[in-house]
Amino acid sequence: LRLCRECSIKNDVADSFIEYIKANRHLLKNRPQTFRHGDYHIGNFLVNDSGELIVIDFNRADFGDPWQEFNRLVWSAHLSPYFASGIVNGYFDNAVPTEFWKLLALYTCINGIASVPWAVRFGEEEIQVMLRQTREVYEWYNGMTNEIPSWYIGVPELWDACTETGERTGQLLIRGEPIPEGLYHIVVEVLAVHQDGSVLLTRRDYTKGGYPGLWESSAGGSVQRGEDPETAARRELREETGLAADVLQPIFTDLSQDSIYIGYLCFTGAKKDSVVLQPGETVEYLWADKEEFTKIYNSKEYVPPLRKRLRETVGRLFGENAAE
Description:
Oligomer: single chain
CATH topology of the largest domain: Nucleoside Triphosphate Pyrophosphohydrolase
CATH superfamily of the largest domain: Nucleoside Triphosphate Pyrophosphohydrolase
Number of strands: 13
Order of helices and strands: HHEEEEHHHHEEEEEEHEEEHH
Number of helices: 9
């Protein structure tokens, strides 16, 4: 911090980096320590004639937080976001923890404020390289307001391909890519009913591609590779509402185009204000009694395909007249 403040070269983004460091330095407490390369980036990689990767330049090797080794990803990300993303995804076996991104941003900021003072001894060309790099980092993190840098390319969501009866074929499907004719993927939906009889309604995020801003009475999503439907249902309920399901009761199976929808009923005694919405999925929630639920369920404000799939269950819960 002292070197940054005393440096004669003005760095427009340094103050933002310093504020981020001050706000997040507590994350350094009790971090594990291990042997590190100290300058692990694409400029220190060689590939020999046999295709083997060779790492050079160990003169900065030391002991410290193993995750700090990623602070040089700025060089790799600049040249190839796919390569940089692959390093991260490979290290964490495609399950990158949220804590990592916070620490990566912190270590990147620490490295950033030191980079320009370091470059002064090497002349104007190196100074400009570091100024451009810190500006690029600032933009990747949207002015240090985002925890995940924009260069990161996440692991594609994979689904097990199934027959129309739900049997797995051994093939994999990639979310966003066309599903071959004759193959299906499984989608789960969970209807949460409170012990007092009210039903949890959530309003879909206005940025959603399908039925933005409409009400729905289910938490749900695609069953991921290797998951069974009930496990996926519990995960989706927890991710989208924060609720945990003790018991799930299957209520329907519906085949529609290239998807097999499996519905579950979850009775809960959770505190009604304990619902935690998932950003990007829903923007509002409501515990609706019979009258209010019936009104919304039968209106244009409710997701039409879900109304069809839940008609029998709604009739059983609230009477045939509730499901028009």
